Amino acid sequence: MTNTHRFMIDKWQVVQAYQLVKANKGTAGIDKQTMLSFEKDLKNNLYKIWNRMSSGSYFPPAVKVVAIPKKSGG
């Protein structure tokens, strides 16, 4: 059996990253997929992300920009 994974990424790192996003009350990104929608097939979605990341074929979508108003106006 050949290892097709270019990067050694532990599956638990992906699970921990998901848990951090959830704890931080993550919201839908540019792809408009909500946490609720993602969690409907959580195990499979996390596996897909891990598999793509470890094989080098994962390219995350663009980041959604949100302006944060500041008291100083800057």
Kindly summarize this structure in a few lines.
Helices cover 43% and strands 0% of the residues. With 74 residues, it is mostly helical.
Salient structural properties:
74 residues; globular; single chain; mainly alpha
Q: Can you walk me through this structure?
A:
The protein has 74 residues and is an all-alpha fold. It has a domain at 11-55. Helices cover 43% and strands 0% of the residues. It contains 3 helices and no strands. The chain has helices at 11-23, 35-39, 42-55. Helix 1 packs across helix 3. The chain starts with 10 loop residues before the first helix and ends in a 19-residue tail after the last helix. 3% of the residues are buried. The mean pLDDT is 87.
Quote the distance from N terminus to C terminus.
57 Å
Which strand-content bin applies to the residues? under 5%
- Report the sheet with the most strands, covering strand number, pairing sense and barrel closure: none
User: What portion of residues is helical?
Assistant: 40-55%
| Secondary-structure element order, N to C | HHH
Structural class by SSE content: mainly alpha
Name the poorly predicted regions: none
Q: What form results from the Cα inertia axes?
A: globular
* pLDDT averaged over residues: 87
Gyration radius, rounded: 16 Å
What is the overall number of helices?
Answer: 3
User: What's the total number of strands?
Assistant: 0
